[in-house]
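> call design_seq(struct)
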């Protein structure tokens, strides 16, 4: 009964169009933000488990947030606009290498500007590789974006200018700093990434509720009907490619600067593209919450497979865990596509609807 909305009257369009119209949802979101921004760093500095060690930040929280941001960008294109993409790993690489070169060649630029310009470079190239979407769609578009993945894999591996002529092909990002203050601790990097993710999540939530978001969804549902009612398919599709590539590029720059610090071109291979696509499918197409659920599930599954069998006296080798991980992903994708195409986010929505009626389902 604590989730009922009885007595919550909407007396204006502003109330009716609120992102979270139910008071309980707003309180839960506020509590989550307070916990993420305040309680987690406080427990880390106080040494309270499980946030007392750097492992939980370096192995779980920071990669989870960055991959959720990348999945958010891919969901704009695949989930909201209906344009299939298999080149998201390439656009993460573009953002990372663009940010690296800007930081190395223009050392006076603030790190936040560097990361955003890396996303802008990915957005420009995303629009260029999105041009085929004006003529083709479906499997043919997927192959076109796959070509982008292979092209940039080759480019960053062979063109030494992008790696600042590094003999090994790997690059090392400059240290993070904000307003002249270096960010070296794991909780500091976590807060830095969390700020980006929070701002982008709220931005995308408002964007998909605006006119451009409605255009994307109209193109996704039926592009011919959308064109008949006055929506320009070229503008809608290319804007989706631009926004998606920008967010993925920023995520790639954060992956290199805030998580890895050093990386090589194979870091952003086609495996990364498939991983992001799995996050979107399992989490839920066309759902912002689904990006976080999918990222959490896919990043936590290997940790569970590596720890739980050993706890019950059945240790598994690394190769066995990798095979199990791939098999479980494949089975889950088939199950979700057949039984629940909207993924984990839909299951959460159904649970909320039942909670709103409990204990009086009639």
């Amino acid at each position: 009964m604590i989730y009922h909305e009885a007595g919550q009257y909407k007396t204006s369009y502003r109330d009716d169009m609120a992102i979270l119209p139910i008071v309980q949802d707003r309180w839960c979101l506020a509590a989550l933000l307070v916990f993420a921004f305040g309680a987690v760093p406080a427990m880390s500095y106080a040494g309270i488990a499980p946030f007392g060690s750097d492992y939980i930040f370096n192995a779980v929280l920071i990669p989870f947030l960055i991959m959720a941001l990348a999945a958010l960008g891919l969901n704009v294109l695949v989930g909201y606009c209906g344009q299939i993409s298999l080149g998201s790993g390439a656009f993460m690489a573009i953002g990372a290498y663009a940010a690296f070169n800007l930081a190395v060649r223009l050392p006076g630029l603030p790190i936040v500007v560097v990361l955003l310009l890396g996303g802008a470079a990915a957005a420009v190239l995303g629009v260029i590789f999105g041009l085929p979407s004006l003529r083709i769609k479906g499997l043919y578009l997927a192959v076109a974006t796959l070509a982008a993945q292979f092209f940039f894999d080759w480019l960053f591996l062979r063109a030494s200018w992008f790696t600042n002529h590094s003999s090994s092909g790997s690059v090392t990002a400059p240290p993070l700093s904000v307003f002249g203050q270096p960010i070296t601790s794991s909780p500091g990097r976590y807060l830095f990434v969390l700020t980006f993710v929070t701002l982008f999540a709220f931005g995308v939530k408002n964007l998909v509720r605006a006119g451009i978001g409605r255009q994307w969804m109209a193109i996704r549902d039926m592009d011919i009907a959308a064109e008949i009612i006055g929506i320009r398919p070229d503008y809608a599709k290319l804007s989706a490619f631009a926004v998606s590539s920008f967010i993925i590029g920023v995520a790639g720059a954060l992956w290199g600067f805030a998580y890895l610090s050093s990386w090589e071109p194979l870091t952003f291979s086609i495996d990364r593209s498939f991983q992001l696509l799995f996050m979107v499918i399992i989490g839920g197409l066309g759902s912002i919450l689904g990006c976080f659920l999918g990222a959490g599930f896919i990043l936590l599954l290997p940790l569970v497979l590596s720890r739980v069998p050993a706890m019950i006296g059945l240790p598994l080798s690394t190769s066995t865990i990798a095979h199990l991980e791939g098999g479980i992903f494949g089975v889950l994708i088939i199950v979700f596509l057949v039984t629940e195409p909207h993924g984990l986010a839909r299951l959460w929505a159904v649970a909320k609807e039942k909670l709103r009626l409990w204990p009086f389902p009639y």
